[in-house]
Amino acid sequence: MTRREKPRRLAAWAAALLALVLCVPAFAAEGYAAVPLLEQIRVALFVADGKTYNVTVPSVTLASAKGLDIGIRDTAGTRSWLAEPSIPEARFSFDGYKVLLLETADRSAAKQLQQFAATASDSIYVFQATRAGKKVYQVYAGMYATSLEAQAAKQRIAANAKAASLLAVASMRIAGPNHYSAGAFPTEAAARQQAQLYSDQGLDSFVAIVEAAGKPVYEVWLGEAADAAGLAAVQAQAVKLAPGAALAPVNPAAPYLLMRDDVTTGNESIPVRHYAFNPAGQKVWIGQKDGGIAVAEKSGRQYRGAIELSQLNGKLAVINELPFELYLVSVVGAEMAPTWPAEALKAQAVAARTFALSLGMKYGIAHTSDSSIDQVYYGIQKEDEKVAAAVTATAGEVMTEAGKLIAPFFYSNAGGMTGDPVEVWGQPYSYLQATTSPDEGAQTSKPKWHRVALVSGTVGYIREDFVSESGTFNPAGFPIVTVRGTGINIRSAPYVDDTKNGAIGSVSQGEKLVSLGKVPESNEYSWVRGPYKADELVKEINLTAKTPITGKLDKLEVSKVGPSGRVTELKANGQVVSVPKPDQYRSTLYDAPSTRFEIEETGRYTIVGANGLTRNVPETKGTLYALGASSAAASQAGDRTMIVVAGGGAVRAVTPDMQFRLIGSGFGHGLGMSQWGARGLAEQGYDYKRILQHYYKGITIGKE
Length: 704
Fold this sequence. Notes:
By secondary structure, the protein is of the alpha+beta class.
């Protein structure tokens, strides 16, 4: 297949799948009466539900190669207001409150202020306008749902020394969504010409699209007042400039699109058209003529169907509406590699379909989100023909128990054994039980890493392809390996992540290291995390623990486990680390991959001496000495890292200070279907129904 052929084939199967969606019959059995039918699904790309989910942006930038179809949606349906190829890209926000920071003819000054004033709380926009034939740049902070929010932003920015140095704080003002209309015009060009007359005389003016007799028309709007007094001032200024003008306050309940030239990003010679819509109940509907709609704030990912914009809980809501079965193609492609066995893909398709339907309208205006909190959805980017075939082969199929949809939890890897719901979330599910899972495939292709000791005493990991085995051993019998390459990083755990597992040392060509053994690179099946220093770890624990751990962290232990070996209770210094649900121990311990782990305390060990006497370190007082290989001299052992070998041959690095390592298996909460396990079962010859019935006990698989 050539690169040119693939998009055509993808478009062909998308059309074929859509046709199938329209003709899939509902399952006729009486036992499935509680299963909802869903032709179109609404996916929240950005939304604030007013509870716990708050993934939002103040504006969204949309693009489509053949142009955007922009309109409105209400109870009467959708109506197109703008549908021209000349609109390949546009930015949208609700017409809320904002802070006008600066108006200047100096583009560099506007850029610098934009850079200094932007924070996590305040987004900065630069709009381009013309006054008396000259370009000016208006720098705003926004968009805010209330005047109080805008006022708080004004105070934050005024307190920002770098930003304040570039503006006259006294001239900063709150702008709002209140406008006067100065009349309607047959074309955008005519409206722009009239608006420019007001702008040249110093009165802010805009072109807005409104609806009259069911058709879009262009109006000239004046001002952007934050309150009634400000609106009265706009009226007075307009009357003074144009005494005979027919002025009318804008209907606050009517839908509109207020247009501005946005140069916040990109080339100022080609501004992005910015449309601000009425936050009071308006829904903006954006379609595309072919392909998909790219969303810049989602890393440019493209989405099929249409995009709906509205304001919910004071934030911009961005909803992607598309055919349900097409959505599933993207979800399955994001959740599983398309190269995996077809039966595993089919199992994932049924699970994803059931899960989405089980959510209902979770977010009030959307069934689901695009995040892993629900199920991952990346739009067209993750579509694939093999995945589409799996979705088509299982079209309409869902899992039920007693005629009702189950909640088919799934995740990456069970680590060999799925969880019991009580040990994970503290509540039973009749169709979920701890069961074996063939998850080992996640590590079969992973490279091995040597755990090595450096001359400096540092203990860490180096990937096996960066060393060669010399065939020699140190006096304690450990093999010596020789470094290959220059500037090779040593890491605390056997995987590469410069943020969470940065280099703790560096070695170069020819250096000799002592190998303490080899392990697979940390993966979804087996992993190592840490070591974590005691003072840092106790702070992390106290972020989520109901009762904080006080004092120095001397001991951290797994005190209880459930049927699958997952941690159900941790103790720190003998005190239970209390969390709402056992699975939350993952977030308590630096987002550990799973709760199926053991803890290694690197600063604690027991010495067996003569006559069976034992000594526990660090509990026992006194000085400990280590005898070297030559037996010539003893040195104090408590001030450096030591390598010790237990009776069974297990090797440990013992540190002078208390540190903690997590050694575990599995990735995710562990309830329901393991995706790697589904692959393993498919490779053993299981079909998708048998795979699902392995993970979800006593369920029925049938059509919607």
